[in-house]
Design a protein that fits this description.
The protein is 34% helix and 23% strand. By secondary structure, the chain is of the alpha/beta class. The strands form two sheets. Strands 6-7-8-3-9-10 form a six-stranded mixed sheet, sandwiched between helices. The chain has a four-stranded antiparallel sheet with strand order 2-1-4-5, covered by helices on one side.
Length: 273
């Protein structure tokens, strides 16, 4: 499955049109509409329970909205399952790290290449003919592009379950970009990280967005307002399932309604660890 429509930087890559989602009597998303432009970093902020993760789940296909439409490259994708959306170029990391603890860093990242294996990823363990050549190419890509980018050469053969949390976050990011996505959804990538790790992760996000080799459009859910305001092109503010406002960071951080709803009159930068 593929979407062949040409999308240039600045064009709308992903659009949510009137998305509505409820759980029982609780309205998680109330007619949410957003447009994510190719080549940019868009961030979604809001207090806990605002609907941010529900929105991410609707985009990635874990949830199917009860009303509204989701368009990717101009094509409606409401009916597509998560793996089908991945095939289109949509990848995701999760709020809680999802890695295979008993597998090495290299093998965890290798799993992210599954849609690129013509012979099937399980065949990669059988080094014969074309399958062997394909496996070598994929491993070279992981070693030279991803492991080098994320600065994890020294741990590439270690079991992920033995690594500190901050490095596990890097591995999960590595597996997501191994898909070579056009759109990467990042659900609280800075959660649980110390200040040095936060700075490193923010740098990696900027690298995959700006470097010519990657140019990945990023959709970020994050509570660290310092980083959000530093790296985002556009910020959306959710509160109780409603979109309060959206705009460039310099407008959002000065908006009295946003400050009151999100931090209760506090400075937007006060959440920086």
């Amino acid at each position: 499955m593929s979407v062949s429509k040409e999308i240039k930087p600045g064009d709308v890559l992903l659009e949510l049109d009137g998305i509505w989602m409820s759980f029982g009597r609780v309205c998680a998303l109330d007619g949410i509409s957003v447009k994510i432009k190719k080549g940019e970093i868009h961030s979604i902020i809001g207090p806990n329970g605002a609907g941010k993760t529900v929105m991410m789940n609707c985009i990635s296909g874990l949830y199917h909205p009860q009303k509204g439409s989701i368009y990717y490259r101009g094509e409606k994708i409401n009916h597509l399952k998560p793996h089908e959306r991945a095939t289109l170029g949509i990848a995701r990391t999760f709020q809680k790290v999802e890695v295979f603890g008993g597998m090495t860093v290299l093998d965890n990242i290798r799993l992210g290449r599954h849609i690129h294996y013509k012979s099937g990823i399980l065949s990669g363990s059988i080094y014969l003919g074309e399958t062997a050549r394909e496996e070598i190419e994929h491993r070279k890509f992981i070693e030279e592009e991803i492991i080098d980018l994320l600065e994890i050469e020294h741990i590439r053969h270690k079991p992920v379950g033995m690594l500190p949390y901050g490095l596990q976050k890097r591995v999960e990011l590595g597996r997501a970009i191994a898909l070579e996505p056009e759109l990467l959804i990042l659900d609280e990538p800075l959660a649980g990280l110390n200040l040095e790790e936060v700075e490193d992760m923010a740098r990696f996000i900027l690298d995959i967005n700006q470097e010519k080799r990657w140019k990945i459009t990023c959709l970020l859910v994050e509570h660290d307002m310092g980083v959000v305001m530093d790296i985002s092109d556009n910020v959306y503010v959710l509160n109780f399932g409603n979109m309060i406002v959206d705009g460039p960071p310099e407008e959002i951080q000065k908006n009295p309604e946003v400050i009151k709803a999100y931090l209760g009159e506090e400075d937007l930068y006060a959440t920086r660890k």
